[in-house]
Specification:
Blueprint: E1 3-7, E2 10-13, E3 18-25, E4 32-39, E5 45-52, E6 58-60, E7 68-72, E8 78-83, E9 92-100, H1 107-112, E10 119-120, E11 124-129
Parallel strand pairs: 2-11
Antiparallel strand pairs: 1-3, 3-8, 4-5, 4-9, 5-6, 7-8, 9-10, 9-11
Protein backbone atom coordinates (compact mmCIF):
# COMPACT_ATOMS: atom_id res chain seq x y z
CA UNK A 1 0.00 0.00 0.00
CA UNK A 2 1.44 3.32 -1.10
CA UNK A 3 2.04 5.73 1.79
CA UNK A 4 2.70 9.43 1.35
CA UNK A 5 4.05 12.06 3.76
CA UNK A 6 4.17 15.73 2.83
CA UNK A 7 6.51 18.37 4.22
CA UNK A 8 7.77 21.85 3.38
CA UNK A 9 4.70 24.01 3.84
CA UNK A 10 4.80 27.33 5.60
CA UNK A 11 3.92 30.99 5.41
CA UNK A 12 5.45 33.31 2.83
CA UNK A 13 4.72 36.72 1.42
CA UNK A 14 3.25 37.40 -2.01
CA UNK A 15 5.90 36.54 -4.60
CA UNK A 16 7.77 34.17 -2.31
CA UNK A 17 8.82 30.57 -2.87
CA UNK A 18 8.42 27.21 -1.16
CA UNK A 19 9.49 23.67 -1.94
CA UNK A 20 7.16 20.86 -0.94
CA UNK A 21 8.31 17.26 -0.58
CA UNK A 22 6.28 14.07 -0.76
CA UNK A 23 8.11 11.09 0.72
CA UNK A 24 6.72 7.74 -0.39
CA UNK A 25 6.96 4.19 0.90
CA UNK A 26 5.22 0.86 0.58
CA UNK A 27 5.23 0.60 -3.21
CA UNK A 28 7.43 0.90 -6.28
CA UNK A 29 6.75 4.28 -7.84
CA UNK A 30 7.45 3.04 -11.36
CA UNK A 31 3.87 1.80 -11.31
CA UNK A 32 2.34 5.03 -10.04
CA UNK A 33 1.50 8.54 -10.95
CA UNK A 34 1.92 11.09 -8.18
CA UNK A 35 0.47 14.55 -7.90
CA UNK A 36 0.06 17.63 -5.78
CA UNK A 37 -3.47 18.73 -5.04
CA UNK A 38 -4.53 22.09 -3.65
CA UNK A 39 -7.48 22.60 -1.35
CA UNK A 40 -8.25 26.24 -0.73
CA UNK A 41 -10.39 27.17 2.30
CA UNK A 42 -14.00 26.21 1.65
CA UNK A 43 -13.27 24.72 -1.77
CA UNK A 44 -12.84 21.30 -3.29
CA UNK A 45 -9.47 19.64 -3.71
CA UNK A 46 -8.03 20.27 -7.19
CA UNK A 47 -5.02 18.98 -9.06
CA UNK A 48 -2.15 21.46 -9.30
CA UNK A 49 0.55 19.32 -10.86
CA UNK A 50 1.10 15.63 -11.51
CA UNK A 51 3.94 13.43 -12.75
CA UNK A 52 4.13 10.00 -14.29
CA UNK A 53 7.10 8.38 -12.58
CA UNK A 54 8.02 5.90 -15.33
CA UNK A 55 8.44 8.48 -18.10
CA UNK A 56 8.54 11.82 -16.21
CA UNK A 57 5.66 13.24 -18.21
CA UNK A 58 3.98 16.06 -16.32
CA UNK A 59 0.78 18.06 -16.15
CA UNK A 60 0.19 21.52 -14.74
CA UNK A 61 -3.07 23.27 -14.05
CA UNK A 62 -3.35 26.59 -15.89
CA UNK A 63 -3.27 28.45 -12.57
CA UNK A 64 0.25 27.23 -11.77
CA UNK A 65 1.89 26.98 -15.19
CA UNK A 66 5.17 28.85 -15.32
CA UNK A 67 5.32 29.16 -11.52
CA UNK A 68 5.34 25.58 -10.17
CA UNK A 69 7.64 22.72 -11.13
CA UNK A 70 7.09 19.08 -10.21
CA UNK A 71 10.01 16.66 -10.11
CA UNK A 72 11.21 13.44 -8.49
CA UNK A 73 14.47 12.26 -7.01
CA UNK A 74 16.71 9.73 -8.74
CA UNK A 75 15.75 7.01 -6.26
CA UNK A 76 12.08 7.48 -7.25
CA UNK A 77 10.99 7.75 -3.62
CA UNK A 78 10.29 11.47 -3.28
CA UNK A 79 8.30 13.89 -5.40
CA UNK A 80 8.86 17.62 -5.10
CA UNK A 81 6.84 20.70 -5.93
CA UNK A 82 8.87 23.86 -6.41
CA UNK A 83 6.52 26.81 -5.97
CA UNK A 84 7.68 30.22 -7.14
CA UNK A 85 6.00 33.61 -7.41
CA UNK A 86 3.39 32.48 -4.91
CA UNK A 87 0.11 34.37 -4.78
CA UNK A 88 -2.49 34.72 -2.00
CA UNK A 89 -4.84 32.48 -4.00
CA UNK A 90 -2.29 29.66 -3.67
CA UNK A 91 -3.10 29.54 0.04
CA UNK A 92 -4.50 26.25 1.29
CA UNK A 93 -3.56 22.72 2.15
CA UNK A 94 -1.45 20.85 -0.38
CA UNK A 95 -1.94 17.11 -0.49
CA UNK A 96 0.22 14.52 -2.17
CA UNK A 97 -1.87 11.89 -3.92
CA UNK A 98 -1.11 8.83 -5.99
CA UNK A 99 -2.75 6.24 -8.17
CA UNK A 100 -1.47 3.20 -9.99
CA UNK A 101 -0.89 3.30 -13.72
CA UNK A 102 -3.96 1.08 -14.08
CA UNK A 103 -6.14 3.73 -12.44
CA UNK A 104 -4.67 6.77 -14.21
CA UNK A 105 -3.16 6.40 -17.68
CA UNK A 106 -1.60 9.87 -17.80
CA UNK A 107 -0.46 12.58 -15.41
CA UNK A 108 -3.30 14.76 -16.68
CA UNK A 109 -5.82 12.02 -15.92
CA UNK A 110 -4.56 11.86 -12.34
CA UNK A 111 -4.74 15.60 -11.84
CA UNK A 112 -8.14 16.18 -13.40
CA UNK A 113 -10.07 13.29 -11.85
CA UNK A 114 -9.59 13.40 -8.09
CA UNK A 115 -11.69 10.24 -7.39
CA UNK A 116 -8.94 8.25 -9.17
CA UNK A 117 -6.60 8.92 -6.23
CA UNK A 118 -6.07 5.77 -4.21
CA UNK A 119 -3.60 7.08 -1.65
CA UNK A 120 -3.38 10.45 0.12
CA UNK A 121 -0.99 12.09 2.51
CA UNK A 122 -2.20 14.20 5.43
CA UNK A 123 -1.37 17.49 3.70
CA UNK A 124 0.83 20.48 4.41
CA UNK A 125 -0.42 24.04 4.90
CA UNK A 126 0.74 26.84 2.61
CA UNK A 127 -0.17 30.40 3.48
CA UNK A 128 0.66 33.32 1.20
CA UNK A 129 0.14 36.74 2.69
CA UNK A 130 -0.45 39.82 0.59
Amino acid sequence: QLQLVESGGGEVQNGGSLRLSCATSGATLDYYKIGWFHQAPGKDREGASCISINDDSTYYADSVKGRFTISRDNAKTTVYLEMNNLKPEDTGVYYCGGASVWSASTAEALCTDVPRIGSWGDGTQVTVSS
